[in-house]
Amino acid sequence: MEVTTKSMPYEAWKDNEYIEGLVEELRANGTNVLVGTLDKLINWGRSNSLWPLTFATSCCGIEFVSLGAARFDMARFGWEVARSSPRQADFMMVAGTIVNRMAPVFRRLYDQLAEPKYVIACGGCAISGGPFRKSYHVAKGIEDIVPVDVFVPGCPPCPEAMIYGIMQLSRKVKVERFFGGVNRQEKQKEFLADSPVAQKAEEIINGEQA
Amino acid sequence: MATIQENIAAKFPQATFEEADVLQINIPDAQLHDLAKTLRDEYGYDYLITIVGIDRVECLGAIYFLSNTKTNQEISIQVTTTDRQNPVITSIADLWSIATIYEREVYDFYGIIFLNNPDMRRLFLSIDWVGYPLRKDYDNGPDSNPVTLEAEPQSDDTHVYTRGEDGKIVCTEKPIFAKNDFVVNIGPQHPATHGVLRFRTAVDGETIKKIDVYMGYIHRGVEKLCENLQYMQTLHFMDRLDYFSAHNYHHGLCMCIERAAGIEVPRRAQVIRVLMDELSRIASHCLFFGTYCMDLGATTMLFYTLRVREQILDIMKKTCGARMTFNYDCIGGVMADLDPDFVKDVKALLATIPANIKEYNKIFTGNVIAEGRLEKMGIMTRQQAIDWSVTGPSGRASGWACDVRKTHPYSIYPEIQFDEIVMTEGDSMARFKARLLEMEQSAHIIEQLIDNIPEGDYLAKVPKVLKLPQGHWFQLVEGCRGVFGVYIESDGGTQPVRMKFVTPSLNLAAVVDEITSGNKIADLITIAGSLDYIVPDMDR
């Protein structure tokens, strides 16, 4: 199955093996005709209207602004509606360094994103700590904090690279199983086990009730 | 200068003097406050550029850089203490308001307690941080302060340290806000704080009572990283502090190192550097207009202003190879020669600038809504600007002529004709207009140079591994947002012992509390936005 988006020829993509592997894994047990067709329809819509969260800590954020402006114009691809509230966003583009003080805030923002949610690690700092890796106050990559879907290297990546990164994400979204897959309602207990912030809130609420 | 030295020596017999590029007075802690007061009141050293914390292993200390706003001369005071367990220095926060923040920074990095400072908290690091990171014996192991996902412990109290009658240090807790204050949290994730900055805002109805600026959400420890790198390797951090003034900051650090090493920069390189500085100033101000107007609801401006910025970025990309982190200025000159199209492209840019500025004025400056929201809003007086060391266009909009290109002319600026934009209103509109006018001046500077780029080398011969002689140097340059300073201390090796960057954004954020209190909370965005701080620049 050739997964592509925005009329880009399949051969022009990099990392095709990855997406093929993903498809194979998801389709290992076959696909229901009805649900599979509905999946395709919904994913077509989802992958073409990914809304980013306005989240930028440093230099990469400025390139993200350029990406939104007239020249690179991410609105062409349906990504223009940058939301300031995580509840309304589909993915967050982590543009910039995450430091110790920011890490809990960042995690909380991730927790607040509505499912299904995605993360793009944008730039050297988000990927590994970049030039600040040896610092006393810098997280060495955001992968320890949240799961990452796409890595966009660069310092900062140029807007074209960011477009390519988001296109890779939309390719990934396209093959997902929406029903019974990414759209599952998470069990509250599982969610709490994952999220220390929610856990704490739960404790406080329980404490007050008792 | 000699007379000041003699007078000080007569008045403070314990003072010793050290001639460097800036006259340094070494004084025991007991007389620091008196000396600072004398210098400020009698000799007119009313501008506190920075306080540099130092750790020389045998002693901890602080160096205060002062400047006279009339004669533009600098002087520095050094205070050291040998007590590593409980280092104590007297605060000068009652003389300069900005000293409160500077001293907090030194406390955060070195653990030096400043007596009588009204707000002795950590500035960038959390309250449970173990150790003081810029001390030479700081343990930077992975276990010492790991990244945690636990919410950061917060305190509503600050500390004040005073010396009791028996000579012992007494610590008293003091609440930051009044008891029944209603505190609204703005940031760190907020579209209008221009990055990850947090304002804890105490409000009375809609009126702002007090703002506690909470920084450190992008503190990356650049100064400590520099201590373990060779001089050439430290340069690239300059791109990532204030990423709009990348060329200007590079210029500053390069000049400081070149002066220390005695390297002569070829004329061609100097002209190229100034051209790049001014181009980045235009690009930076363009982005300011765009984002600022967007914050105020005029989203269209962003698209108009970024058009010019993209044009400049294209010019830079052709020569420097990058859109943002150029790493172009290097020790002894610039990395690469100009692109063959450079002159043609810059001329095309210059041709469009007057029309663009006219357009900005038409869309925004003359707009009734903009006038209503910006005029008389967040007035900063000249005295306040100096007291808080607010430099750059924001300081000049308050009537303080603080442009380093004029006060301490460097590179080829003395030969260039341009006006320093000084306004008197001091409100948000003045800060906005000052930048518009500065853009015109920058274009004027480029016009003068673009046809006169001399031929020759663009890079001097510099040894691969550079050693600086023992000593210390201080250099100021004009960034896009204000005075950028570099302090380098060398022990004669290939790596600096201490490298301190004086960034304008720290002061711009610090003054927010002073000029917003009494205004409506909706105007916080107007006022703070007009100051145009860059968060990674203040946090470093």
What is the terminal-to-terminal distance of chain A?
56 Å
Number of helical segments with 4 or more residues of chain B: 18
Shape of chain B: globular
Q: In terms of per-residue confidence, which ranges of chain B show pLDDT below 50 for 5 or more consecutive residues?
A: none
CATH-derived topology of the largest domain in chain B: Cytochrome-c3 Hydrogenase, chain B
CATH architect. name of chain A: 3-Layer(aba) Sandwich
**Helix share of residues of chain B?**
25-40%
CATH first level of chain A:
Alpha Beta
What top-tier CATH class of the largest domain in chain B fits best?
A: Mainly Alpha
Assess the beta-strand content of chain B as a share of residues. 15-25%
What does the largest sheet of chain B look like?
Answer: 5 strands, mixed
Number of domains of chain B: 2
Helix-strand pattern of chain A, N to C? HHEHEHEHEHHHH
- Helical fraction of chain A equals 40-55%
Detail the poorly predicted runs of chain A.
none
Helical segment count of chain A: 9
Count every beta strand of chain B, where a strand is a DSSP E run of 2 or more residues.
17
